[in-house]
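Lecture 7 notes: from sequence to structure.
We start with the chain below.
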Amino acid sequence: MDTAENMRKIPRQSRAQDTVDVVLEAAAQLLEASGEAGFNTNAVAERAGVSIGALYRYFPDKQSILRALALRETEAHRRAVMAVVEDGAPGLARDRAIIRAFVQAFAGRNRARRIAASAMLAQADHAELAARFSAAEEGILDANGQPLTRVQAFVLSRAVHGALRAAVLEGADFLQSQAFEDELVRLGRAYLGYVV
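Predicted structure tokens for the same chain:
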């Protein structure tokens, strides 16, 4: 499911894209401030400073806004992960940098992240979502310098991703803590056979 499937009209001009971006940012702010109780299309349009007609031009309902918000953040996270895979992260090990990129998604807006992620996951093509991050699984080596099999890469990535997803969806207060990041890194390294 891509962002286009959630929208009535695809923004083609920069002004239209700016409107969509403002609506999504307003949605994130509103979710973080008020949660689902205060989240509706009128409130989003008001916070974004756009007419309800302008909002409906791009989003047919509040669920489409939530899914588009989650997909926007998923894509931003994918780009951050790919930057780590391609260029590394100065001063950080690759595994830690990838985990940190995920933890920092949604710019620390954990309430907005939980609500948007729940909406997206309810209708997502999970294989498609996983495929967006498959490049991060390539090139992982175990402690002996051997590449992981496809099955091993799947188990490792889903174990880490599962813990991250659960922390988001359950609203864990430690999601952005150093202790959680350290445990995820330890899990991955232990699976790869490194002494931790």
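Points to note: The mean pLDDT is 88. Residues 3-63 form a domain with the Arc Repressor Mutant, subunit A fold (CATH 1.10.10.60).
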